[in-house]
Amino acid sequence: MKGAVRxxxxxxxxxxxxxxxxxxxVTDLIQLIYSSKPFGFDDAALNGILSIARWNNPRxxxxxxxxxxxxxxxxxxxxxxxxxEKRYASIARDKRHLDVVKRAxxxxxxxxxxxxxxxxxxxxxxMWTAEEIDAGALDRATPEDVIAIFQRLAAEVD
Length: 158
Ligand SMILES: Cc1cc2nc3c(=O)[nH]c(=O)nc-3n(C[C@H](O)[C@H](O)[C@H](O)COP(=O)(O)O)c2cc1C
What we know:
Blueprint: E1 4-9, E2 15-21, E3 24-27, E4 29-38, H1 43-59, E5 63-69, E6 72-80, H2 81-92, E7 97-107, E8 119-122, H3 130-134, H4 137-140, H5 143-155
Parallel strand pairs: 5-8
Antiparallel strand pairs: 1-2, 2-3, 4-6, 4-7, 5-6
The structure holds flavin mononucleotide (FMN).
């Protein structure tokens, strides 16, 4: 299947696009993680964001998770590079949050949240406190540190 493009459906109906070169499957999958500060955080705001994410993301083969609390959004987007970068660009312009900073970007061969158009997670006790975030914990964190947060979330039963 040299150079063939195959579109598959995963269990959740999210399209996955694989490019086959010879006998090797070359996927275009990337993960991007950013942080931001909510502007006007409440249930209605969060529901609005999750509704649009869950509508758009499956059509773009994007999956991921959004950690949300009054002082922090930390979102992992994963999918084909062009789709994720385009969606991230529109998210970064959104007025519902401020101080959008890209924290990690890497090619991957497997998704962490293959069954989630956008999983929503409250912040966990093992993450940084609001005081630590205020004191710059995120700015001191390495990309591996923020990836490890999502790896831990993904390891929980879903
Ligand atoms: C914290 C946050 C996370 C978001 N996550 C997504 C997402 O995963 N997918 C999505 O389509 N829109 C998401 N949005 C909404 C986008 O910013 C934007 O409103 C939406 O993608 C429509 O953009 P468009 O009109 O440019 O297509 C998010 C917004 C915020 C504030």
